[in-house]
Design goal:
The chain has 115 residues and is α+β, with helices and mostly antiparallel strands. Helix content is 30%, strand content 13%.
Length: 115
């Protein structure tokens, strides 16, 4: 999990919290856009759409994730090399895999993930 957001159970969500990503229903339709500020009414309606947790921006008071140690990063790098063994980094047609690998590398290194 990035330092920028957290998933909270609906019971822990409070009015005024801000969505860190689009909120989708069971069919994949956008219920609320990224950046929407949650209200009492909105929170009360979410269960009827099958929502039980929401991604919200982490408050400024939360401690950021600590960067991982060098041995942990080395082990993570080896694991990623195995997972992405068929990916050619210089292949410009495979941008999605490159983006996914960067995201996973940032996540594992506990760096803030740019979305």
């Amino acid at each position: 999990m990035s330092a920028a957001y957290q998933h909270l159970a609906l019971a822990d969500v409070e009015p005024g919290m801000v969505l860190s990503d689009e909120l989708l229903d069971r069919q994949g339709q956008v219920l609320l856009p990224k950046g929407a500020i949650l209200t009492d009414r909105t929170i009360a309606l979410l269960p009827s759409h099958g929502i039980d947790a929401v991604p919200v921006l982490r408050s400024g008071g939360a401690a950021p994730a600590q960067p991982r140690s060098a041995p942990d990063l080395a082990a993570s790098g080896k694991r990623l090399a195995i997972l992405f063994r068929k990916h050619q980094p210089d292949d410009t047609h495979d941008w999605a895999t490159s983006a996914l690998r960067r995201y996973v590398e940032d996540y594992r290194a506990a760096r803030e993930v740019a979305l």
